[in-house]
Amino acid sequence: MAKLSYTSDELMASHDYARPHERAGYKLHGGFLADGSYESPRVLHRWPAVKAWQGELTAKGWPLIDATVQLLKCGNYPNISQERFLLSHGIGQTLWDSLTITGVIEARGRVLCDIEAPDFQQIIEDDISQTCTGHLHKGLLYA
Questions:
Q1: Residue ranges of the alpha helices (H) in 77-134?
Q2: Under a CB-based contact definition with an 8 Å cutoff, are residues 41 and 30 in contact?
């Protein structure tokens, strides 16, 4: 049976990077493993945990909800002509906000680090200690 319970330290653990992810003198997100592949931070145990929790849900007959980048696939807003118009009037923040999907998600998702996640076990009758929801207040939301 797959491991389903994790400590805060495990949820925050990163791989031992062979080299940091740096460009133009700036330290960036994550790092590179010995084989040269990029790895996000804090996923040493988190990815295996998510996969185990997914497996447990599907084994119990629950469908997984699509939370992939497919949710973000839609036309750009503002579109190119609208962006040119905004830039011509000195309004450039929308351009910076839309440069990358990762940038947008990280910037807006950063606020999650400042939110103290509740312990949902207080309001859920079933045991959730071995679920993703049961780990939100243990650092998973921050990670």
A1: 80-88, 93-97, 101-109
A2: yes
